[in-house]
Amino acid sequence: MPTLFQVTEEFQALDDLLHEIGGDVTDPQVAAIVDTWIAELDTDLNRKVDNYAAFITELSGRAEVRLAEAHRLAKRAKIDETTAAWLKGRLKQAFEARGLSKINTDRYRLSVAMNGGKQSMELTGPVPIAFQTQPPPVPNTDQIRSALDRGDELEFARLLPRGTHLRIN
């Protein structure tokens, strides 16, 4: 009969293997190890099933702890992200209040840059049927944007001025 230490080693080997293959329980190597272990169940059935259940409980508990830690870290990351964005906005305001567009420091090059991508668009009134898709009638923003980009004056839509952002390199 195997000792408790040997049984623990078996489960540690299984745990190490699962970790090594990224938890892929469909791996034939994992299936072979578990099948071999189960085939030997006739010897000391209760102890082996008890140890198997203990290992399952340990894995479930570890997963719970890791999920809780991941959740805690995600909340901390969100706080850091929000704080960094707020500080960046305040620094951009300070640049703009002083009429600065660039500053080079010992470690960084900071600049107020124009936002890229599609220019924001605002619908200011009822959209004519010619600028709607059917059914249901909804504004065709691609068509409206295309007309505005060509320089067409539309009384129901306009492009908004491009915003700026603080770039830190």
Jot down its keywords.
single chain; 169 residues; alpha+beta; 2 domains
Topology:
Elements: H1 4-20, H2 28-39, H3 45-97, E1 102-104, E2 109-114, E3 121-123, E4 132-133, E5 138-139, H4 141-149, E6 157-159, E7 164-168
Antiparallel strand pairs: 1-2, 2-7, 3-6, 4-5
Written overview of the protein:
With 169 residues, this protein is α+β, with helices and mostly antiparallel strands. The chain folds into 2 domains: 1-99; 114-168, no CATH class. It contains 4 helices and 7 strands. A 3-stranded antiparallel sheet has the order 1-2-7, covered by helices on one side.
Quick rundown:
With 169 residues, this protein is α+β, with helices and mostly antiparallel strands.
| Termini Cα gap | 65 Å
- Determine the oligomeric state from the structure: single chain
Taken in chain order, the helices and strands follow as: HHHEEEEEHEE
* Total number of helices: 4
Which sequence of strands runs across the widest sheet?
Answer: 1-2-7
Question: Uncertain segments of ≥5 residues (pLDDT<50)?
Answer: none
Residues in helices, as a percent range: 40-55%
Mean pLDDT across residues? 88
Shape: elongated
| Biggest beta sheet summary | 3 strands, antiparallel
Radius of gyration: 31 Å
How many β-strand runs? Answer: 7
Query: In percent terms, what proportion of residues is strand?
Result: 5-15%
Domain module count: 2
**Which structural class matches the secondary elements?**
alpha+beta
